[in-house]
Design a protein that fits this description.
The chain is globular and about 50 Å long. The chain has six helices and five strands; from the N terminus they run E-E-H-E-E-E-H-H-H-H-H. The N and C termini lie far apart (about 50 Å). By secondary structure, it is of the alpha+beta class. A hairpin with a 2-residue loop joins strand 3 and strand 4.
C-alpha cells in the first residue's frame, strides 16, 4: 500500500485538507476525492483544456499537475466560479450565444475566459482568441464562444452587473 501525503489548500474559497497519493493528479483529486466533477478529463496530455483550473490566479491544466502541488495554494474550479458574478455572467452568455453544444469543453473554457476578462479590461476578439488558444471545442466552434466572452467583457465595466474587474 502506498503512502499518502497530507495537503492543505484553499479550494473555491474554502480551506481544505486531504490525503492523496504523491503521484495523483490534481484532476483526479478534484473529481474522485473531492467530488468536483465540473472539471473534465479530456486528453490527459494538456492539449485540450477541458481540465483547466486556476491556481494562485494562473490557469493550468489539472491533468498535468500533481495534487500535492496544490499544497498551500489557492485553487479555483468551475464550481468556484458559480458564486462569482463574472463567472455566472460568463456561463449565462455562453448559453445565450449558443456557445454550448455537448458542453464537455465548457467548464475549462469558462475558467479560461474568466481569466481573460480579469487580465484584459475590454478584450478585443484577437485578445480573446489568443486567451482561449489552449482550449479545444469540437462541437460549437469558436465564433459563438468568442462572441459570448466579448459580450460578457462589455458588461464587466458596469459595477451593477458584478464586473470581473474593480
Amino acid at each position: 500500500m502506498s503512502a499518502k501525503v497530507d495537503i492543505q489548500f484553499r479550494l473555491n474559497g474554502v480551506d481544505r485538507r486531504v490525503e492523496v497519493p504523491p503521484t495523483m493528479s490534481a484532476l483526479t483529486m478534484l473529481r474522485d476525492v473531492l467530488d468536483l466533477t465540473g472539471t473534465k478529463y479530456g486528453c490527459g496530455e494538456g492539449e485540450c483544456g477541458a481540465c483547466t483550473i486556476r491556481v494562485d490566479g494562473v490557469t493550468l491544466n489539472s491533468c498535468l499537475m500533481f495534487a500535492v502541488d496544490c499544497d498551500g495554494r489557492e485553487v479555483v474550479t468551475i464550481e468556484g466560479l458559480v458564486a462569482d458574478p463574472a463567472g455566472e455572467r460568463l456561463q449565462q452568455k455562453f448559453v445565450e450565444y449558443g456557445a454550448v453544444q455537448c458542453g464537455f469543453c465548457t467548464p475549462g473554457l469558462v475558467v479560461q475566459a474568466h481569466h481573460v476578462l480579469e487580465s484584459h479590461p475590454h478584450p478585443g476578439r484577437a485578445e480573446i482568441q489568443r486567451g482561449i488558444e489552449g482550449n479545444l471545442c469540437r462541437c460549437t466552434g469558436y465564433k459563438k464562444i468568442v462572441e459570448a466572452i466579448e459580450d460578457a467583457g462589455k458588461m464587466g465595466s458596469d459595477p451593477k452587473l458584478g464586473g470581473a474587474r474593480p
